[in-house]
Amino acid sequence: MQNLTRLRRYKKFLTFLSDSGMIFLKGGARQRMNSKPIAVFDSGLGGISVLRRLIQVLPEENFLYFGDSANAPYGPRPTEEIRSLTLENADRLFSRGAKALVVACNTATSAAIDTLRERYPNRIIIGIEPALKLAVSRHPNGRILVMATDATLREKKFATLMERFAEHCEILKCPCPALVEFVERGELEGEALQKVLKAELQAHLTPAPDAVVLGCTHFPFLRSAIQRVVGDSPELLDGADGTAKETKRRLTEAGLLRTGSPGKVELVNSLQTPEIFALSEKLLSV
Ligand code: DGL
Q1: 106 lines ligand 1 (CB under 6 A)
Q2: 44 C-alpha vs ligand 1 centroid, how far in Å?
Q3: Interatomic CA distance for residues 150 and 181, integer angstroms
Q4: pLDDT digits (tens, 9 = 90+) for 184-202
Q5: 3-state class of 143 per DSSP?
Q6: Closest to 152 measured CA to CA, from 241, 226, 84, 215
């Protein structure tokens, strides 16, 4: 009887190891695997807002950031197209040896996270979703404005999230198709931006929301400009911290954390211009 229990425990342990992709790793091989980078992917430069937080939470990790600026924005594209671009990019990043993938794009997460996990069942894949749970916990029964891309707001994933929380608060959906390109151009302030923000947000500001969820990873770079339009009272929230902490939790659980010295960050972009690299570095230091 005791042997049977032991056998079951051992089998459970083996399943855990195999699910986490660790089963064949020992000593030096494990160390080499732990030093592989965490890939962070976005349709463009927005995911750098998540990368910043990841570096703070996991300073000893190596990161490989890939921005698909040549194909940005993803938001206005059909779901099937977003899915196939995301899969293509994930394939590339895993073939470069990434030990985990952070999909730092709400749009790509909504369209492709399930397919990605089916394709790579033994890999650590973390997505991001609009920080509605955080907003509701901080403002129960509040009025919550969610800014995101068209694709994020139309997908089933967001409908399910909304259903979970609609009972506890008023949720207003605000698609903001024009904002991503401001960030891709590095235009984080200015009259043209204020004009677009006013046009997109004005209809939802009376009465003032209690919280504004920045449900696209490009939007944290527009934080000051958005705050100027919505006023001082609404709290602006995003999902970067939750995603970074979840990444740390998953790597710890799988025994894949890198420790010992500060990690390196490599920035890669499908648009290979000096301007895009300069802007990526600038955004990383904002
Ligand atoms: N940064 C992406 C997100 O979080 C979307 C940007 C785009 O439309 O490409 O949804």
Answers
A1: yes
A2: 7
A3: 14
A4: 999 999 999 999 999 999 9
A5: strand
A6: 215
